[in-house]
Automatic annotation (TrEMBL):
Organism: Nocardia coubleae
Annotated Gene Ontology cellular component terms: plasma membrane
Protein name, UniProt field: ABC transporter permease
Lineage start: Bacteria, Bacillati, Actinomycetota, Actinomycetes, Mycobacteriales
Compartments where located: Cell membrane
Main location: membrane
Membrane topology: Multi-pass membrane protein
Ranges annotated as spanning the membrane: 99-123, 135-162, 182-202, 286-309
Length: 319
C-alpha cells in the first residue's frame, strides 16, 4: 500500500502545482485593481502606488507567483486587506463550518444509500423499486437552491420546529442537541442528491453482482440470500462504489456553496463569495487552491481505499 501511495503522490503534486499556476494567472486577468479598490475613489496616485507596493503588485508576475508560492509552503497565507483579518483565521473558521456540514451530509448520504440499496436487493418488489426510482429522480432533478427554501418554508415557517439558518450560538460541541437542530435542514438539503446518486449506482452494482457465477454457486450450496448479499455481493460492489463516492464527495463540496447561501451558513462558500465580490485576490487564491487540494486528497484517499479492497489495483500500481 505504501508503494502504491508513493506511486500516486507525484501526479497529485503535479496537479496542485498546475492548479496554483492557473489560479494565479487567471485572477490576474480579472478586470480591476485591488490597490485602487482598497485605496478608495478619492485616493491620490501616491497612495495607490504605496498600497500596490505593500501588496507586492509592483513586482513582475513571476516574482509575485514565486513569493506567493513561498508563503504557501511556509503556511504564511497573508492578510486580507478588504475582508479584514488574517487569511488563515478566515479560512480556519469557514473550513470548520463547511467540514462539519459536508461530513454530516456525507455520513447521512452513505447511510441512506446503503440502507435503501440493501433493502431493494434483499426484499425486491415492484412497489419498492418504483418508490425508490421516483425518489431518486426527484432528489437528483431538484437543485439545492430549490430544496433549501422549500425546507425552510415547511420546517421553519409553516411548521416552526427548526431554525431557518445560521450556526449554533454555543458551537457544535457544547450543546449537541441544539447543534443538530441547526444542522438538520442544511444537511438534508446537501445530502439528498448525493444519496440518490449513490443509491442508484450501488443498487445496480449489487444486482450485477448477483448475476455472477459465484452467486449461482453459493445458491446451489444453500447459502442464505442475505449472507450472499451482505458478505459477497456488497464487498465486491464496494470498490467501484467508492470511486463514485469520491466523485460525489467533490460534488458535495461544490453544492455546499449554494446550501451555505440558502441557510446563511458561514463557511467557505460565503468566504469565496465575499472574496470574489470584493476582489480580494489573496483570499480567493488561497480558497481556490484549497478547493483543488481537497479534491486531490479525496481522489487519493478514494484510490487508496479502492486499492485496499481490490489487490489487483495495487498490483497494477506497482507495475
Amino acid at each position: 500500500m505504501t508503494r502504491y501511495l508513493l506511486h500516486r503522490l507525484p501526479s497529485a503534486l503535479l496537479v496542485l502545482f498546475g492548479a496554483s499556476v492557473l489560479i494565479f494567472l487567471l485572477l490576474r486577468l480579472v478586470p480591476g485593481d485591488p490597490a485602487t479598490i482598497l485605496a478608495g475613489n478619492d485616493a491620490t496616485p501616491e497612495s495607490v502606488a504605496a498600497i500596490r507596493q505593500q501588496l507586492g503588485l509592483d513586482q513582475s508576475i513571476p516574482a509575485q507567483y514565486l513569493s506567493w508560492l513561498g508563503d504557501l509552503v511556509t503556511f504564511d497565507l497573508g492578510r486580507s486587506y478588504l475582508i479584514g483579518g488574517q487569511i488563515s483565521d478566515l479560512v480556519g473558521r469557514g473550513l470548520t463550518n463547511t467540514l462539519v456540514l459536508t461530513v454530516t451530509a456525507l455520513v447521512l448520504a452513505v447511510v441512506v444509500s446503503l440502507a435503501v440499496s440493501l433493502a431493494s436487493v434483499l426484499w425486491p418488489s415492484r412497489w419498492l423499486n418504483t418508490v425508490v426510482a421516483a425518489a431518486n429522480t426527484i432528489a437528483v432533478a431538484l437543485p439545492t437552491f430549490v430544496v433549501g427554501p422549500l425546507l425552510v418554508l415547511v420546517f421553519a415557517v409553516a411548521i416552526p420546529i427548526l431554525p431557518s439558518g445560521g450556526v449554533p450560538p454555543d458551537g457544535f460541541i457544547a450543546r449537541p442537541d441544539i447543534a443538530m437542530q441547526y444542522l438538520l435542514l442544511p444537511t438534508i438539503c446537501l445530502a439528498l442528491p448525493v444519496a440518490a446518486a449513490l443509491t442508484r449506482f450501488l443498487t445496480e452494482s449489487l444486482r450485477t453482482e448477483l448475476t455472477k457465477p459465484y452467486v449461482l454457486t453459493a445458491r446451489s450450496l444453500g447459502v442464505d440470500h442475505r449472507e450472499i448479499v451482505t458478505r459477497g455481493a456488497l464487498r465486491n460492489a464496494l470498490p467501484t462504489s467508492l470511486t463514485v463516492l469520491g466523485l460525489q464527495t467533490g460534488q458535495l463540496l461544490g453544492g455546499a456553496v449554494l446550501v451555505e447561501a440558502a441557510f446563511v451558513w458561514p463557511g467557505i462558500g460565503q468566504l469565496i463569495e465575499q472574496g470574489i465580490s470584493r476582489r480580494d485576490y489573496p483570499v480567493v487564491q488561497v480558497l481556490l487552491l484549497l478547493a483543488v487540494a481537497v479534491f486531490v486528497v479525496i481522489q487519493l484517499l478514494t484510490d487508496l481505499a479502492h486499492a485496499w479492497l481490490d489487490p489487483r489495483v495495487r498490483i497494477g500500481g506497482r507495475s
